[in-house]
Design brief:
It is a single chain. By secondary structure, this protein is of the alpha/beta class. Helix content is about 30%, strand content about 35%.
Length: about 210
């Protein structure tokens, strides 16, 4: 089963499951890139899902355009008014149906670990963001340069699906090749059974188009 189908299947329970994990990734990523944001700017959220990651940015006053391949997830996002515009699109299909430098900022939170090769997504982030704009990412931390599989991860304890780890140095190099400079980074430990888990460590990164 592909990741789009998996996400559509559990769209109705996704946020309840995230609450059980005390998922604070969106707030942490927002805090990391806050200094680059101004109310009234626009942001593209790649893999917006139910809009959980977009919510703090919308509250801040950004106009969020969400893109996702899972229609059931996006329908929940629409109902919660977490974005103003939507595009249904498979993130593995390039190029994305947007104009060059269309957005002040681009975000991809909690998505990149579903891709072995993230170079195409980074390329599109660099193409779509305006000069000086930020690209905010959250990736499952890895130790090799390219698509390290994590066989121990089972999505929400029920659905087997491949997760891929990516080193910060690899993400930074991909961005640098496309004119994105790494400005900030941090690590975030997800919870497992109420305790931070060393097995689920995510990297938060903010890059800027120079």
């Amino acid at each position: 089963m592909d990741s789009i189908s998996v996400h559509d299947d559990y769209a109705s329970t996704y946020e309840a499951e995230a609450d059980k994990l005390n998922y604070t990734g969106p707030e942490l990523l927002f805090g990391l890139c806050h200094s680059y944001l101004k109310p009234g700017q626009n942001m593209l959220d790649l893999g917006i899902g139910t809009g959980l990651c977009a919510e703090p940015f919308t509250r801040f006053g950004l106009t969020v355009h969400g893109m996702d391949g899972a229609p059931a997830m996006m329908e929940i996002c629409k109902q919660k008014n977490r974005a103003s515009e939507f595009t249904q699109w498979n993130l593995a299909e390039f190029p994305y149906p947007m104009e060059d430098e269309q957005f002040d900022h681009v975000m991809c939170c909690g998505v990149l670990h579903f891709f072995e090769d993230i170079s195409g997504i980074i390329t599109e982030c660099a193409r779509l963001v305006k000069p000086g704009g930020s690209v905010s990412l959250m990736v499952l931390r890895g130790h090799r340069d390219h698509g390290e599989p994590d066989e121990n991860v089972v999505l929400h304890s029920t659905t087997p699906i491949s997760f891929w780890q990516h080193r910060l140095e690899h993400v930074s190099a991909l961005g640098r090749d496309k004119g994105l400079a790494l400005r900030k980074s941090a690590y975030y430990l997800m919870e497992d059974g109420g305790e931070p888990s060393e097995e689920l460590v995510f990297t938060l990164a903010v890059l800027q188009k120079v």
